[in-house]
Structure formats: structure tokens, C-alpha cells
Amino acid sequence: MKKLLIAVLMLSLLAGVATVWASVIGTPHDLAPEPCAMCHTPHSGTGQYPLWNRAQATQTYTMYSSPTFDMGPAHDGPRYPSNLCLVCHNGVASTLVNYPGPCSDPDGAYDLQLSGCADLTTVLSDDHPISFNYVQNADLDDDGFPPTAAVGSAGRLKINGAASPSGYPLYGDGSDHNWFECATCHSVHDVVDYNGKGDYQVYFLRADNTGSAMCLDCHTKR
Fold first, then answer.
1. Torsion sign over Cα 135, 121, 32, 194
2. How distant, in Å, are the alpha carbons of 6, 10, 41 from that of 2?
3. What share of the chain is helix, strand, coil (3-state, %, to 5)?
4. Contacts of 49 (CB under 8 A, 6+ apart)
5. What's the pLDDT tens digit per position in 180-208?
6. Are 146 and 81 in contact (CB under 8 A)?
7. What is the rounded CA–CA span in Å between residue 20 and residue 30?
8. Which of 58, 147, 167, 213 has the fewest beta carbons under 10 Å from its own?
9. C-alpha distance from residue 146 to each of 153, 155, 189 (Å)
């Protein structure tokens, strides 16, 4: 029994080497003295899950469209949670609803001005499509899109993939829960560690994309 326990412990340690659970701290989302407050507030949030601390006027977006977009058209605007990501990443100034501390004045450190590659703009026609229904049998161009699997008691769907053992989650409510969103490929809290992060790979991916492995999890015949 003792040898069995040692073997199990060794396997657990080896598994931990492959996937190291990280944090938003120290990543590009660590933007201010209180990084959680850049997006969240425990009180007086905007009513958008989860305790959203950002306010911005309603934006009109140009969504992705292409003759080879088998699962299109995309929704007429970004759905949740992509619309939360774009509050900051559409390049339009975003302000906090609830500033940290009682009766505190607005602190410029918590405002957000993005430029460069982090600014996607409101024109999403030149980016990977989001807010579309992932339907495997709509693969008219034979890209090899994998099937989905149910996850957990809520029945959320995920796209299976070799690069990401946990898969790529899809979003939506009730029976309408197969929407591909920003968070399908990205984890805003940077929960997966991989080689080259911040060097030749970007932060917040759900898997190591060396050799385009993550891309090929969906586009298996490309």
C-alpha cells in the first residue's frame, strides 16, 4: 500500500509539471494597485456577471463574415462573455463604475487606454470570428471540426482537443449553449502555464500553441 501511495504521489507531481495553475497577478491584466478592481467590484456593479465594474456606452460592431465561414453568420453583435472582454479591448475609453475605497476620487491608474495589438477596435471583421454557433455538421469545407462534449451538471459544452486536456468551453444559456466566444480560446485569469508565454506566445491561451497545436485542435485538416 505504501508503494502504491508513493506511485500515486509521483504521478500527481508529474501532472503538476505539465499544468501549473497561474494567476492574473504578474500578467498583462495586472494593471493597477488593485488588479481585481480593474474588472470586478463586490458592490454596486453594473449588473453584468460577474460583479462587473466597467461602464461603457453601447457599441456597434462589424462582425466577421466570409464565404468560407461555414458556421456563420455571426450574431449581430458580441455576446457574453465576449462583450465583457471588448469593454476594454475595443479601443474605446472604459471607466470604472465603483472606485476602490470609501468616497475615493477617481484614480487615473484604474482608467484604461489601450493601443497597439491589445486594441481590437469595433471592427471585428479582420479577427477570428466570435459569437457564432459551433455546429460540427456545418463543416462544408471539411476542416475537420471536432465534436463537442458536455461538461458538468449544467451541461455546458466544450470542444475536445489534444492540446487542451480540459477542452475549449462554449457558452450560452439553457439549450442554447454552443456559442464560440473569446473565452473559448482565452482564459482571462491566465489559468494555464505553457512555454514561451510573454515571449513568442501570448498570455491567456487555454493551451500551448507551439506548432499551432491549439489552432489545429479545431482545424484538424489544415
1. positive
2. 6, 12, 48
3. 25, 15, 60
4. 80
5. 999 999 999 998 889 999 899 999 999 99
6. no
7. 18
8. 58
9. 22, 18, 26
Single-letter code of the amino acid located at 200: Y
Residue from 194, 203, 196, 185 nearest 27 by CA: 203
pLDDT at residue 34, as a whole number: 85
* CA 33 – CA 110 distance, rounded (Å): 8
The DSSP secondary structure of 159-190, one letter per residue, reads E--SS-TT-EE-EEETTEEEEE-HHHHB-TT-
143, 71 Cβ separation under 8 angstroms: no
Amino acid at the residue 85: C
User: Which cell numbers hold the place of 41?
Assistant: 467590484
